[in-house]
Amino acid sequence: MERILRKIWPPTSIWFAAFVLMSIICVLVYYHIWPGLFVILALLFWLLFFYSELRKPAAGIIIFTIVIAMYFQFSLQPIPAELPEKTNVILEGRVAGQPLVNERGTRFVLHTNYNDIRLKQIQVISPTELDIQTGDRLRIKGKLKAPSPPGNPGAFDYPRYLSYQEIYYLLTTKEGDIPEIIATSGFYQQVVNGVKYRVESVVKSVLTKQQAAIMLGMLLGSIESIDAEQYEDFQKVGIVHVFSVSGLHVGFLILLSGWVCSLLGASKRIKLLSGLILLFLYGSLIYWPVAVTRASIMAALGLVAYYYGRPNDILNSLGLAGIIILFIDPYALFQISFQLSFMATWGLIYLFPIIRLVFPWQNRWLDLALLPLAAELAVIPLVIYHFNLLSVISLLSNIIITWLVGGAVILGFLALLTCFLPLIATLFLYPAGLLATIIIKLVAFMVALPGAYFWVATPPVYIVVLYYAGLCILIWQIRLANSNKIVMLSAAAIMSVMLVVVFWPASWQNWGRLEVVFIDVGQGDSALIKTPRGKFILLDGGGSDFSEIPDRTLIPYLRHRGIRHVDMVINSHPDTDHLQGIERVVEKFSVDYVAVPKLLKDSERYNTLYQLTQNKRIQWLFLQGGQQINIEPGVKIKVLYPAIEKQTDDNVNNLSAVIKVDYKQFSLLMPGDIEQDGIKRLIADKDMATIVIFKVPHHGSRYSLVPEFYQLIKPRFAVISVGNNNFGHPSSDVITVLKDQGTIVYRTDLDGAVTFISDGYKLQVKNYKI
Amino acid sequence: MQNFFMDILFPQNECCVCREAGRYNTRHPWCNQCQEKMDNLRTAMPTCDYCGKYLLNGGSRCEECQAEKPPFYIARAVGPYEEPYRIAIKVLKFLGRRQLGYCMGIMMAEVVREEPLFWPINLIVPVPSSKASMKQRGFNQTEVLGQQIGKCLKLPINAEALRRIKETPSQRECTREERERNLWRAFEVKDKSKIRGKSILLVDDVYTTGSTSRECSRTLLDAGAERVGVIVWAIGTGY
């Protein structure tokens, strides 16, 4: 028994093993999977019994992990159930982390000292640009509100994200309200803030805006000034990690301090101390993001090991770093940056030497190519799961760009150290800016390469777990002297299951059934139709004049489902809350047909859409009453309104295209934002039959209520696509009228995305928020 | 205490001599095979009665000791300056694995304890290292060994008694004559009162030609020490 165990897990890297164990226990405790916890503990005692090697240290580790699990259990506060909205609340507290200030306002986290768990940490959102510094004590007035949970599958879960930081409330202040600063930050914090401000101003004054944004991102990890599109390009190329300052930077700092110390002829002790101090200073300068904390702990352990002449096993220090971070903040485990940082490092230091074993010959060039491969193998499922992105080019881009980034970071650090001597700093910054430009150009070039990256569907969690299980089996087999080909192949097969799942065409899901999804796009309309044979039709896309709502709702939903191609987009009328999403989809997805109402086709609001379709092979359709589009056998799209000859109204809403979709017994009516006049004209023109699913016009507005119309069509289900608004949508009258005649009403603001799946006779309804 | 925590914080995953994977710690720094090799080498050859050198041709005195009696009255080593011993001292010196001093010190103390000729001993004095290597390594390996020996034998140690006053080049590639010339008047006793009339145990890491030990012993005797015995980790072979 022991011999087998020894082969599977040689008694090394005890801290890494403890870290893995602790993470598993944390997850099991967090999700209350008590049987799992029991199995793990039983397994541990079993190991202890059979594995004499393990007996002494393992006993300590078991006790240790149990203590941690208990600690974790006690440090976890249950998420408060009741989070009522409160207005005119006055809070006092200290600004934690770096306040994000841009033209849209200020966002920061406020640490209060209240006993109420719900008020301990507050995310503050102010529409004004505030002049506050990290560490200031503030008195602030505003409205307390719980963050709204995601409305669509695949959307970013903001409340959960905040709850991992133990934040449960958002505080929104009024425009122009300036919080009262009770006390400024302490001396040390002021020095740090001053240095940071100095560095930023020097970099911004010397470099162009674009260069400065990239440089500051790489140096200090501050990404708020990077253009969103450009950031996405970096993601697509797979090098966004250059902004999560970590190993490279910390390693360079240590090298620099060691070099300077040797130059000055300092002793070992001075080297150790200066290294530690430099790490601490740099960490506080950028407010200890997880990746930097990890790298700093690992570097500090390395320094101590060097000083005391101890063997430094990097895998062990990775485990120790993880344990320390989890001790400080157990929720860190659920943060994307924590997962990515640790998995990538694990790939580099553990996977890389093993992958090297596969190749019979070894040389430096091969290593250069294998390093990004190792990191990629370790993080691929996480990137796919969180970002729906599979970057193929990252294997290449990381080889080239890492060197450039290294150069830019070194120059940037020299500038950082000399930031109080602007002339010398400029000397370093110019070449750094040049490198930044080269990086930007290279990224732009690589993004444009065909097949550089793929948008893929979100895999289920168990598929991700399966991938890692396959990876572990593969590693184990490679390490064995006489590896079993069949086991290795099946492990590879298990891993590739994930690729199959994420590349499984979206159009094959629910084959043979019609699907209609009313996507929660806040205040706005958006519905996705999937025909039984897998064609996607998007009716309106939501939008807002104040924020890029489709980027947070519609686009993530389509990405989540793995949709890359939309056959037809239809816009009912050119209002922002219907059109913006359409524009984004045409911009980012491949689209065959764009349909707009014929009467409104010359509206100047369509200019952006015309421009976007110019260089693409997109066919325009102009809708008018009486048309019928045969999408595929059995599925018909009828345009009921407006008839072209009756253009008398200049109200855009009343000229909305009214569309009916028929499939066997199933029917769907999408009347856009049509109002009373339009509805009256519509029922005067057409004989309306009964309808199965009906989208309530104009987000449930009172001015679109024509009770006779509802009696005519007698919908089984009605959906109100509505969000936070000041127009009084949806009107209670509308809901009453509908409910009185037996219609089941869904609202996207309360129900989230509403999905109808039908084979033409039976109907299945799902609402995302229950 | 420090070693205990360091073992927990930085577990040693391979034998420090042959790099065989396994679980090791301060008390058990090398694998059993290496330990066995060391034990076998210890008694493989006869040694010189005076300087403890391993004699390839047998006998009881080495050529040098026959020619001239060394200044110290006895020198002993744990083993010959060969494979496991040589690597162990190199790992301690050049990789800076200070914790090896624990085991090595115990083994050296054991040799001292078992040799009645050493006794009585009043004071342990390690051979001082040069300033350059002190700065580079951050510690003096003979001091580390000496401290452990002192702990085992319950003897006081004075690391400052001897001082190097001449920076000597590395002795490794020098001939015997060059070494002796380099080391001539290289040491000095700082405070003679602490040495006077005492029976001293000099601790060194390696004894190849014996130049360092001889010079240090001479300096100590000049300063008034009653007698000097030498304990080293590894010793060379000769005729």
User: Largest interface by residue count?
Assistant: A-B, 26 and 23 residues
Structural class of chain B: alpha/beta
In CATH, the topology of chain B is named Rossmann fold
Biggest sheet statistics of chain B? 4 strands, parallel
Mean pLDDT of chain B: 83
Helix share bin of chain B = 25-40%
Task: Give the number of helices of chain A.
Answer: 26
Instruction: Round the Cα radius of gyration of chain A to an integer and report it.
Output: 29 Å
User: Which overall shape of chain A is indicated by the principal axes computed on the Cα atoms?
Assistant: globular
How many DSSP helices of chain B?
Answer: 9
Distance from first to last alpha carbon of chain B: 44 Å
**Net shape of chain B:** globular
End-to-end Cα distance of chain A, whole Å, is 50 Å
The total number of structural domains of chain B is 1
Main sheet strand line-up of chain A: 14-13-12-11-10-9-22-23
Any low-confidence stretches of chain B, pLDDT <50, length ≥5?
none
Mean pLDDT over the full residue set of chain A: 87
Order of helices and strands of chain B: HEEHEHEHHEHHEHEEHEE
**CATH architecture annotation name of chain B:** 3-Layer(aba) Sandwich
Oligomer: heterodimer
